[in-house]
TrEMBL record:
<keyword id="KW-0880">Kelch repeat</keyword>
<dbReference type="Pfam" id="PF13426">
    <property type="entry name" value="PAS_9"/>
</dbReference>
<dbReference type="InterPro" id="IPR000014">
    <property type="entry name" value="PAS"/>
</dbReference>
<dbReference type="InterPro" id="IPR036047">
    <property type="entry name" value="F-box-like_dom_sf"/>
</dbReference>
<feature type="domain" description="PAS">
    <location>
        <begin position="28"/>
        <end position="110"/>
    </location>
</feature>
<protein>
    <submittedName>
        <fullName>Clock-associated PAS protein ZTL</fullName>
    </submittedName>
</protein>
<dbReference type="InterPro" id="IPR001810">
    <property type="entry name" value="F-box_dom"/>
</dbReference>
<dbReference type="GO" id="GO:0009881">
    <property type="term" value="F:photoreceptor activity"/>
</dbReference>
<dbReference type="InterPro" id="IPR015915">
    <property type="entry name" value="Kelch-typ_b-propeller"/>
</dbReference>
<feature type="region of interest" description="Disordered">
    <location>
        <begin position="618"/>
        <end position="663"/>
    </location>
</feature>
<dbReference type="Pfam" id="PF12937">
    <property type="entry name" value="F-box-like"/>
</dbReference>
<keyword id="KW-0675">Receptor</keyword>
<dbReference type="InterPro" id="IPR035965">
    <property type="entry name" value="PAS-like_dom_sf"/>
</dbReference>
<feature type="compositionally biased region" description="Basic and acidic residues">
    <location>
        <begin position="647"/>
        <end position="663"/>
    </location>
</feature>
<dbReference type="Pfam" id="PF24681">
    <property type="entry name" value="Kelch_KLHDC2_KLHL20_DRC7"/>
</dbReference>
<keyword id="KW-0716">Sensory transduction</keyword>
<dbReference type="InterPro" id="IPR011043">
    <property type="entry name" value="Gal_Oxase/kelch_b-propeller"/>
</dbReference>
């Protein structure tokens, strides 16, 4: 996203301070001057519009007190000071989480924060950081940066030994141990044979293990690290260190995704190593279904509700009761408990009852409800709820210039800030093709319609999936095609974080101009399940397909590939009979999809759940059955009832990936 002053911090004054911090008027400049020189305070500036708020400026006082140099600080989120020492990889347990949460909430709301927080120097020495963070607003009122002013003081604490460097030095490889390098015509022509070139692997001998890990291996994708591990013995030994794999996963999938995966698996015994996590989430070899039941009840019974995940909790809101009665109650199912059970949540100021609405998660614990069909017809209101609040209460967000009232639309949240809404159906039955954004953190929210450029055809029952950064992928739905309404298998993408967002047609069969996808494409459908996997791939299954009620065959698409490629994934286990988008959600950082409810006659059973797990938490020999990629028993059927056929399912290419990751 571009904004006034984004490149300003690249220009410094004589004191090494970004010019945009000096202010445009003399009064502001004097205040900043006093702030910088009146007392020895640490000063940092973070980019509020970039992912994870990286530090873009740091003064020498901050470097002196923390022991970190500017090169080690710039580009990082300042949470690294909550980790004890340069080799720690998680927050120290002595850090007050309540203060951390208050700071996060203030940043998300674009407000000032004051508080004391336990920090650590590079050598592990504890410090109390008396912190003041204040927002900087751009010309349009958007928070573009945060200034952090720190006053450090030492504190005595018995913290035990300092975390050591998590990798081991590998003895240098002798030239005699390396395979002979044969000169090639290319190397002779380029004059590089025998020197530091791509033809001479001995060049890596000059690099330390720390440089290889932090500057090379740690920045590759899991698949590429596995391939590097086959280059030489030194890379193979480094590739056996689980710390490296954790760093690779965090860099490739994002800090938040890696943290969510770790939090979801912390209770597993024995714990899964990151090398195995990387392999199973790249090859999807361990994908399997299981069925389980939970306690409690959701009363009165309903359909057409909406559900989303907040951490390991499933949240259900609203729905259609008897005689099309709209409902507005909230239920929670905590899957992290030993015996999960549905419980009703007492909340105040509940929104009007509705069905055919959307429910999204925002910033970890917040829920966002938009639209749906109420007692008097379609709605276009927005309500938010902090599920972790001491006394949860729904609050309406009255954005100016709202879109048309609608139901059966799709929505998602991006960057912990924006609500994105596309399509749906009006009270007259007209399908919509508009795209709206709403900044939920703004003091005076204003709806913004994306106009100009290509628009996907009008539709309902489609899905929106958040990819890396601010990119969104749309799949399927019941789309308008001339005078007809047809199920769709088209894929569109948009980056809502750029100055002028535009939809792009990625692949499909309904419109001209889409790149033809290789592999077996999923049949056109609506009200399906779409789940974003770690690494940016999208998993599609279920929904309404012509001739089939809710097919459970799994399809995977990697939108980053130059030529889109669909793959069928055949997961064994106890499959659900139905799977719908409004009653399925993803937990565990994208490693588990939970399908809500079976049926007894026409009565929906919300105590019966099916889970698709992408990680083999049973260690490979559990009750979930053998991994699909290791072979299905002879004569076994696919989820669609057909015989197993590796060539048609696309398993051969997955086997190649798995082979590379296992070596």
């Amino acid at each position: 996203m571009s904004y006034p002053g984004r490149d300003a911090y690249e220009e410094m004054d004589d004191d090494g301070v970004p010019l945009f911090l000096r202010g445009d008027d003399e009064k502001t400049r004097r205040r900043i001057e006093v702030l910088l020189h009146s007392s020895p305070h640490g000063l940092i500036v973070t980019d509020a519009l970039a992912e994870d708020h990286p530090i873009t400026y740091v003064n020498t006082i901050f470097q002196y007190y923390t022991g970190y140099d500017a090169e080690s600080i710039l580009g990082r989120n300042c949470r690294f000071l909550q980790m004890r020492g340069e080799f720690a990889d998680k927050r120290h347990p002595a850090v007050d989480l309540k203060t951390v949460r208050k700071m996060r909430e203030a940043i998300a709301a674009g407000q000032e924060f004051k508080g004391e927080l336990l920090n650590f120097k590079k050598d592990g020495t504890p410090l109390i950081n008396n912190l003041l963070m204040t927002p900087i607003h751009g010309e349009d009122g958007i928070v573009t940066h945060f200034i952090g002013i720190q006053s450090f003081r030492p504190i005595k604490m018995d913290l035990g030994p300092l975390p050591e460097r998590p990798w081991k030095d590998v003895p240098p490889v002798r030239h005699s141990e390396l395979p002979p390098v044969q000169p090639s015509e290319e190397s002779f022509a380029a004059g590089t044979f025998g020197g530091a070139s791509r033809h001479n692997p001995a060049v890596f001998e000059a690099l330390s293990d720390e440089v290889l890990v932090s500057r090379i291996l740690g920045r590759l994708a899991p698949k590429d690290v596995a391939i590097c591990s086959m280059v030489c013995r030194r890379f193979r030994r480094l590739g056996q260190d689980d710390y490296i794999w954790k760093r690779v996963c965090r860099n490739s999938w994002g800090h938040n995704t890696a943290a969510a995966i770790q939090a979801a698996l912390d209770s597993q015994t024995p714990s899964l190593g990151w090398a195995r996590i990387a392999r199973e989430l790249t090859t999807l070899e361990a994908a399997a279904w299981r069925k389980f039941t939970v306690g409690g009840s959701v009363e009165p019974s309903r359909c057409n509700f909406s559900e989303c995940a907040v951490g390991n909790k499933l949240v259900l809101f609203g729905g259609e009761g008897v005689n099309m009665q709209p409902m507005n109650d909230t239920f929670v199912l905590d899957l992290s408990l030993e015996h999960p059970a549905w419980r009703h949540v007492d909340v105040s100021a509940a929104p009007p009852g509705r069905w055919g609405h959307t429910l999204c998660c925002l910033n970890g614990s917040w829920l966002v409800v938009f639209g749906g069909c109420g007692t008097d017809g379609p709605l276009n209101d927005v309500f938010v709820l902090d599920l972790d609040a001491e006394h949860p209460a729904w609050r309406e967000v009255a954005g100016a210039g709202p879109p048309l009232p609608r139901s059966w639309h799709s929505s998602c949240t991006v960057d912990g800030t924006y609500l994105v809404v596309f399509g749906g159906c009006t009270d007259t039955g007209r399908l919509l093709s508009d795209t709206f954004l709403l900044d939920l953190t703004a003091q005076k929210p204003v709806w913004r319609e994306i106009v100009g450029g290509f628009k996907p055809p009008s539709r309902l029952g489609h899905s929106l999936s958040v990819l890396e950064g601010s990119k969104v992928l749309m799949f399927g739905g019941l789309a308008q095609s001339g005078p007809l309404r047809l199920r769709s298998s088209d894929v569109f993408t948009i980056d809502v974080g750029i100055q002028e967002p535009n939809w792009n047609y990625l692949t499909g069969s309904m419109l001209p101009g889409g790149a033809p996808a290789t592999g077996p494409s999923p049949p056109p459908r609506l009200d399906h399940v779409a789940a974003t996997l770690p690494g940016g791939r999208v998993l599609i299954f279920g929904g309404s397909v012509a001739g089939q009620h809710s097919p459970i065959q799994l399809y995977v698409l990697d939108p980053k590939e130059g030529r889109p490629s669909w793959r069928m994934l055949n997961a064994p286990g106890l499959l659900p009979q139905y799977a719908w988008g409004h009653s399925t959600c993803v937990v565990g950082g994208g490693t588990r999809a939970v399908v809500l409810g079976g049926f007894e006659g026409e009565e929906r059973l919300l105590n019966e759940l099916h889970e698709l797990s992408l990680l083999d938490v049973e260690g490979g020999d559990g009750a979930l059955g053998t991994s699909e990629l290791e072979g299905r028993p002879e004569g076994a059927k696919q989820p669609d009832g057909s015989e197993s056929d590796d060539k048609e399912s696309g398993e051969s290419s997955m086997m190649e990936e798995r082979s590379a990751l296992e070596n």
